């Protein structure tokens, strides 16, 4: 929940309530993100997003490297809220694809 | 895991680890504050790359884990009410309260929804004007700007059916609490990178000076962590206690000013109880006067709450860095991510969960340098 995922701003728009919003692409997953805290952020920039909010700018090379890590560890869906824990059964494991180790008892 | 091997065999990791080994002449204890860093360290075996003199202890930086039991019980009571839509981050739904968790409330008919952002909860409030939408607003300084914006918009729109159960916690007071503990072992900190993205690191020099501890702002990727450790060790060996930024690509000294401005409008400092640790003065945020109408605790009277912590759970010691998760009797036996006794076994940032996932067989081969 509070790792923060880097993504690329692909569109900026103002919502009806006047808050600066944008579409951010995270390695193919696109999300609406609030850009109000980074007034200088432009289309094409990379940013770190926490729970739907862009909090800091990031250069492209660092962003791509971080994204690669998220992808390879399978953490992207989880951090972006794509996996609904209430839909999983049993839902406790926070790491998608993880298998329980054999019991030692 | 491909990345892991690549990382561990990579020239950058090897040279950083070698540099750390060369610098260390005596035992040192460092604490990484952020739960995301804890997971990265355990998952990538970073502690196993370090010389035996160097011990990493895991800090209380898992917001889900330190949310007080009383507040979780309140959340469960509010979520069970008819007419309420209770929204929470996914990490929170399996955190055990005194009797059940949010997932159980949902299966018993409560309208509990997992949202990605507090703005999703706001949207629900607009969509269902005749329902009460409550958001469980937890987290450190990283999630606070999101929650502040949701409240700001709700107030501006005059949304009367939206409220927040607020339990925000702050990093700097927690560092001071750890440093002033009589059982203190920590000699240096890796400060949480993304907390500093929001807040900057101008608050840390007085702490570093007063307690003579190096504080190194550190990211959570493997190489970032090694670099943060390397810098902290260099300071310790040289007898320095300064604030350094080892994560400049995402952190500036002043932090995110627009976010800090809204935070100051919506929240004010308050004493806050940390689960398993106790009350830390001025270590949390509550709503300011202007935002108090959105306080879910005031809006819903849930009566007296009697909390019951499972006696066997030692999460408090784990959170303070005095016990490693696999030293807990219940670890991996009664307590697993499917049957958690404590929040540290559930959260994706909890230390017990990290050890369970990546160090499943403690005591057997490969237990690492930290046992
Ligand atoms: S292993 Fe389980 S019971 Fe033991 S401290 Fe961790 S959460 Fe609590």
Provide a descriptive summary of the structure in words.
The complex is a heterodimer of chains A (105) and B (371). With 105 residues, chain A is of the alpha+beta class. Chain A has one domain: SH3 type barrels (Roll), CATH 2.30.30.140. Chain A is 16% helix and 32% strand. Chain A has a 5-stranded antiparallel beta sheet. Mean pLDDT of chain A is 72; it is low at 83-105. In chain B, helix 3 (35-43) packs parallel to helix 17. Chain B has a domain at 65-170 and 255-268 and 278-299: HypD, alpha/beta domain 2 (Rossmann fold), CATH 3.40.50. Chain B contains 17 helices and 11 strands. In chain B, the strands form 2 sheets. Chain B has a 6-stranded mixed beta sheet, with helices on both faces. Chain B has a 5-stranded parallel beta sheet with strand order 2-1-7-8-9, sandwiched between helices. Chains A and B meet through strand 5 and helix 1 of A and helix 3, strand 4, helix 8, helix 9 and helix 11 of B. Iron/sulfur cluster is lined by residues 312-315, 318, 325, 328, 330-331, 335, 341-342, 344-345, 352 of chain B. The site of iron/sulfur cluster (SF4) has 15 residues of chain B, from helix 16.
Distance between the termini of chain B: 23 Å
Any idea how many domains of chain A?
A: 1
The number of helical elements of chain A comes to 2
CATH structural class of the domain at 65-170 and 255-268 and 278-299 in chain B = Alpha Beta
- Counting helices, strands and paired strands, the structural category of chain B is alpha/beta
Q: Number of DSSP strands of chain B?
A: 11
CATH architecture of chain A: Roll
Strand content of chain A: 25-35%
Per the CATH scheme, the topology name of the domain at 65-170 and 255-268 and 278-299 in chain B is Rossmann fold
**Quick one: CATH superfamily of the domain at 65-170 and 255-268 and 278-299 in chain B?**
HypD, alpha/beta domain 2
- Percent helix range of chain A: 10-25%
